[in-house]
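It is worth pausing here to work through a concrete case rather than discussing structure prediction in the abstract. The textbook approach is simple: state the sequence, then state the predicted structure, then interpret. We follow exactly that order.
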Amino acid sequence: MRIIGIDPGLRNTGWGVIETEGDKIIEVANGICATKTSDNLALRLKSIFENLSMVLTTFKPDQAAVESTFVNKDATNTLKLGQARGVCMLVPALAGLRVEEYAPNAIKKAVVGVGHASKEQIKYMVKLHFPKIKLRSVDSTDALAVAICHSNHLRNSMKMHKKMQNSALI
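Step two, the predicted structure:
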């Protein structure tokens, strides 16, 4: 199964594509959809839409996961980030993918083991998963963490489902 993780951002939207087979996880690609800070909001959202659409066309994921937005002190910036996040959810949905959402603390816990991990700890663990990886940016690193979190969630859900089926047979 191929999973795209997306870390929404108005300046840089990170993306990371992984492939899973059982417990095995392979990094396929990672990068960012960068926007020009000199462009108005509409053009920046359009740029995210077009670039992320191209990523989905190129790498053809089966599933998508997006990091939830946290609310910061500046309501205007939070609203703009929410709009970028909406585009990041819309693109895979238009491609027919189910889109799952994960809170930042859940992603950190899934990848590092603690919900308040630093960016450096996340980078270290992503590199541990993929020793030969060339990380494109901190945003693509975070996106790969989102994809790993979703992979873990799917794997745990499948294990739970099998246990429930087995216990029903007894």
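Step three, interpretation. The CA atoms of residues 65 and 100 lie 5 Å apart. The chain has a mean pLDDT of 91.
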